[in-house]
Write a structure and sequence with these properties.
Layout (H helix, E strand, L loop, with lengths): L1 E3 L2 E3 L1 H9 L5 E3 L6 H12 L20 E5 L1 H5 L2 H6 L17 E5 L13 E5 L8 H12 L1 E6 L10 H6 L6 H8 E3 L8 E4 L2 H11 E3 L7 E9 L3 H10 L1 E2 L4 E2 L3 H13 L2 H13 L2 E6 L2 H13 L4 E4 L13 E6 H4 L10 E4 L6 H8 L11 E9 L2 H11 L6 H5 L5
Parallel strand pairs: 3-7, 3-10, 4-5, 4-6, 6-7, 11-18, 14-16, 14-17, 15-16, 17-18
Antiparallel strand pairs: 1-2, 8-9, 12-13
Helix pairs in contact: 1-2, 9-10
């Protein structure tokens, strides 16, 4: 462990730091300290030194401006401000030691920096996938600035790497990449990849830009899948008749059908019975859920069982409760990232998210470097219904669940 400006770098972080370069992706699991390592890279490349036992200031002459593009949640919770302070950097000019400026902003505002030149960018989380506005602005920024990217899951397919490959100068554009590596299906109505060619080169290029953090966690994760029941007769009736029993009208589309099936499954009494048993075993739990109707039911259970609770969702941003026992009710989209908790060793996934990446982020809320727990417990409440099984199968393949494919019968 190396001391750096009042903070510590673990050996695996120092090893990654020594291998980092412009245009790389620092790849480490949730809680591995990617933010700190990224700032250490900026600090060292601008004249700071590690291992001296004291803070060595950076060269303030022509010091690069630092622009961090992150999620809106991380920006709003000022998580990066905490990481910046040991380096004597701040988004506040009166608190920043240097004459440069530091900006922390969200991906939604990346267009504001498309004309920036000569700065240093840290892109927090891989968001440059596809052909949208974020990708276009990222490529403009990469052309005139130094940059690195941080990600726990850098890419699922070779297509995900195209923007980063172009930004590194490996290909002129997407067309050149496709002509060299992609064979499209001849019979598909839309562009669909049939297979990739010259994969050896793709693997070498990926190896050049990925800087893996060799992070050996001290924690041991225990994932338990708790079998819950569901109303099979009503479930089959909905599937067969395509009738919304809540609104008493025909179901319009795949999203409505899947939503109705999930509501039937998620509100089954057996799921709440399983939850109560878990809370009897673990007095402090974080509970992740998807829908408002789940929140209403969870609040009702906590109130009936006299369990103190707090919420983090689109409606309320309450702090984690204090005390010997409590429940923290967190909606996936609102609270899967940007906060940490070392007060408990237990997360309950009351219902499954459609997204593998969100599930990984959510699990990482308690798997932190400074957690006092060695064993971490993750309880997945799941029925044997076709929709729960399809979502589970998708997550197991590290993909995102597609409602249309489920309704079309493409899932096993």
């Amino acid at each position: 462990m190396v001391t750096l400006a009042g903070i510590t770098l673990y050996d695996y972080q120092l090893d990654a730091l020594n291998r980092m370069h412009n245009g790389c992706i620092l790849c480490g699991g949730v809680g591995s300290g990617k933010s700190r390592t990224a700032l250490a890279y900026y600090y060292v490349k601008n004249g700071g030194e590690i291992g001296t036992g004291q803070y060595i200031p950076m060269n303030d002459i022509n010091l690069q401006n630092l622009i961090i593009i992150t999620t809106a949640r991380k920006r709003d919770t000022c998580e990066w401000e905490t990481e910046l302070s040991p380096f004597l950097l701040s988004t506040r000019r009166d608190c920043n030691l240097y004459n440069n400026y530091v900006v922390v902003d969200s991906w939604n505002n990346i267009h504001k920096y498309a004309g920036q030149k000569g700065a240093f960018f840290i892109f927090d989380e891989q968001r440059v996938v596809g052909k949208g506005t974020w990708v276009n602005n990222f490529l403009k920024i990469a052309k005139h600035n130094e940059w690195i990217m941080l990600s726990a899951t850098p890419g699922d397919t070779w297509m995900d790497y195209i923007p980063v490959f172009i930004a590194n100068g490996f290909y002129k554009n997407r067309t050149e990449f496709n002509s060299q590596h992609v064979i499209f299906s001849r019979w598909s109505k839309y562009p669909k990849v049939d297979r990739y060619v010259n994969i050896g080169r793709l693997m070498r290029l990926r190896e050049r830009i990925l800087v893996d953090m060799d992070f050996n966690r001290k924690t041991i994760s225990h994932h338990e899948y708790i079998k819950c029941d569901y109303d099979r007769a009503t479930y089959m009736e909905i599937m067969k008749r395509r009738w919304n029993i809540c609104k008493n009208e025909p179901i319009k589309d795949a999203a409505e059908l899947c939503g109705l099936l999930r509501k039937l499954v998620n509100l089954d009494p057996s799921r709440f019975e399983a939850l109560i048993e878990i809370m009897e075993l673990h007095p402090r739990v974080i509970i992740f859920y998807n829908y408002d109707y789940e929140l209403d039911a969870l609040i009702e259970v906590c109130s009936a069982e006299d369990i103190p609770f707090a919420q983090w969702n689109g409606h309320k941003h309450q702090e984690i409760p204090e005390g010997r026992y409590w429940a923290y009710l967190v909606q996936y989209n609102a609270g899967a990232e940007g906060w940490n908790c070392v007060k408990t060793d237990t997360i309950v996934f009351f219902s499954q998210s459609y997204s593998y990446k969100i599930m990984v982020q959510a699990a990482g809320r308690i798997d932190r470097l400074n957690t006092p727990y060695k064993d971490l417990y993750y309880y997945h409440l799941k029925s044997n219904s076709s929709i729960d099984n399809a979502i589970y199968g998708t997550l197991k393949r590290k993909k995102t669940f597609n409602e249309r494919k489920f309704i079309g019968g493409d899932y096993d």
